[in-house]
Amino acid sequence: MQNQNKNILIAGVGGQGTLLTSRIIARTAVQMGYDVKVSEVHGMAQRGGSVVSQVRYGKKVYSPIIRKGDADIILAFEKIEAARWLDYLKPGGTIIINNIRVDPLPVLSGKAKYPDDIADKISSFVEKAFVVDADKIAESCGSIRAANVVMVGIFASVFGIPEEEVKKAIQYLVPAGFLEINLAAFDEGKKIFIELNRVK
User: Residue 199 has what pLDDT?
Assistant: First the structure.
């Protein structure tokens, strides 16, 4: 981490661990001596609604809110959420997209169609766009519910955050019974980022 303020937007749907992700990132920053502000917006999570967290950290942070065009990185846990929040990404910023589809209510009710090839379209005009099968990676670690921590591993790699600091935060926030799976998911996230960069 550097002294310059960093802005992280985390977007997903209910049940994907969006809020835990923001807390892991925020605690990591606090452990490293940074000022941290967090904003959480809970949608209709029980119906698969949008859930968004914003984390800002740096030497001094005065507001938890990220303005449009100011996010250094977006972690999108679902493809429509990537598109929904894309205008918050700064020029030259990074977006990591979990390659899964969760149909929102308008699609489920037949009132709208799920857009085709969202992730590919975003990747075509955002240079630092990476699409990852985080759910599959997490499942290979023992639980699909650790997909969010796979994304944390990618985030830590993007910003060059020491893994021991992130793992310390994970150990603090994740129940003991799920800790081994989540630490493995974090390690796999770091590995997949190396592979994604090779492809890029």
Answer: 61
Would residue 11 count as lying in a domain? yes
Q: How confident is the model at residue 105 (pLDDT cuts 50, 70, 90)?
A: confident
Please check whether residue 1 lies inside any domain of the structure. no
| Structure confidence by residue, pLDDT tens digits, 30-76 | 999 999 999 987 665 455 678 899 999 999 999 999 999 999 999 99
What whole-number percentage of the chain has pLDDT above 70? 94
What CATH code is carried by the domain that includes residue 186? 3.40.920.10
pTM metric for this prediction: 0.90
6-13 vs 50-58, strand pairing mode = antiparallel
Residue 113: inside a domain: yes
Residue 62 is assigned to a structural domain of this protein: yes
